[in-house]
Specification:
Elements lengths: L10 E3 L8 H8 L3 E6 L7 H13 L6 E4 L1 E3 L2 E2 L11 H10 L1 H21 L4 E2 L22 H18 L4 E5 L20 H6 L2 H7 L5 E4 L3 E2 L3 E4 L4 H11 L5 E6 L11 H11 L3 E4 L2 H8 L24 H5 L2 H12 L7
Length: 345
């Protein structure tokens, strides 16, 4: 098999459970592995997840990037021992009548989320969702709002909170997953609107917030006005619109290549190849069985080169004991918890 792209450090993998299996260790040692995506199946407690992250780092000779989807609401992978975070849409509801209060809460949301993960050794959450809450059944309350201006305002403060905590950021799902109903996890998704509509609505939060985005995750959505391929496989979206048109220089991730809409490209190897050739810097393969299938099609040896994803590693300047002694920190945590029982939840 002739490789038209390099494989080193290009895959973020999912592992099996709360402890590393021998198969997990083999996958972590593979030269293609640049990082890990954690899920609820990996979690039992903050202490256990901290140990698991340390074991993952020990199992690789590279500086792995450890990530998770920890948005709040229905997509919060870890709960016991973590602040229960409201869905981002709660902030959007508050923004309608109390914009100053809402952007302050958006900052706290990003800051608390990032700090608690960093304390466990986790580098980055794939957050925030910058899609619009318009039609999508899978986005919905994961988005801040329907209005692009509200998403820009809330998203900017959320990103500032993440950065002040010491965490890099990821805007998703470029160029926008919120204006078409189908769920790309289980169906093919096609947004047939003209490019002008996409640019004036869905692209606006990405365009305005790109200076604050250390990384971007692509959507498994076809926009036929631009390209007949899903955006994560389309150089027209990644190289032309994102890199050249918007002059973006951060990291570009694919969404999970195991999702239904990603099957457009064929085998997992073909999905990886097309993603990387289109301009993605790294791809997500979240199911251990999918990792096994992909790695069986890749060479098992390669150079132990420096991991370019390491620039997304997090840095937490505080200990848990230091934070516990700060009244403002406890107030921030409580103010987010209170939203669960508020009129906006």
């Amino acid at each position: 098999m002739t490789q038209q792209f390099h494989i080193e450090n290009t895959v973020l993998i999912g592992t099996e459970g709360p402890h590393l299996s021998e198969r997990d260790r083999a996958h972590l040692a593979h030269p293609a592995t640049g990082g890990v995506v954690l899920f609820t199946r990996n979690f039992q407690s903050p202490e256990q997840i901290s140990k698991l992250v340390a074991d993952m780092r020990d199992a690789s000779d590279r500086e792995l990037l450890i990530t998770v989807d920890h948005e709040g609401g229905r997509v919060q992978r870890f709960q016991k021992g973590f602040t229960r975070l409201p869905a981002l849409a709660v902030l959007g509801k508050i923004y309608v009548d109390y914009p100053e209060r809402a952007v302050d809460l958006a900052y706290r949301h990003g800051r608390v989320m990032a700090t608690e993960l960093l304390l466990c050794g986790i580098d980055m959450s794939f957050a925030p969702v910058l899609d619009l809450d318009r039609e999508s059944c899978v986005i919905g309350d994961r988005a801040f709002a329907r209005d692009p201006a509200a998403v820009c305002a809330l998203g900017g403060h959320y990103l500032a909170g993440m950065h002040d905590a010491g965490m890099k950021t990821c805007g998703k799902h470029f160029p926008g997953h919120g204006s078409v109903e189908a769920d790309s996890h289980v169906a093919d998704v096609c947004d047939k609107r003209p490019l002008a509509d996409i640019e004036s609505l869905d692209l606006r939060p990405f365009r305005e917030l790109l200076p604050q985005l250390d990384s971007v995750m692509m959507a498994h959505v076809v926009y036929p006005a631009v390209d007949e391929r899903p955006a994560g496989y389309a150089d027209t979206w990644i190289r032309q619109h994102l890199r050249q048109g918007l002059n973006y220089r951060g990291v570009v991730f694919s969404d999970d290549l195991g999702m239904h809409a990603a099957a457009f490209a064929g085998t997992l190897f073909e999905r990886m190849r097309l993603s990387l050739e289109a301009g993605c810097d790294a791809v997500l393969v979240c199911k251990p069985g999918d990792v096994e299938a992909l790695y069986s099609a890749l060479p098992a040896t390669g150079q132990a080169v420096a991991n370019p994803l390491a620039k997304l590693r997090g840095h937490n300047p505080h200990t848990e004991q230091e934070l516990a002694s700060v009244g403002e920190w406890r107030h921030w945590q409580q103010s987010l918890k209170n939203l669960e029982k508020s009129q906006w939840a």
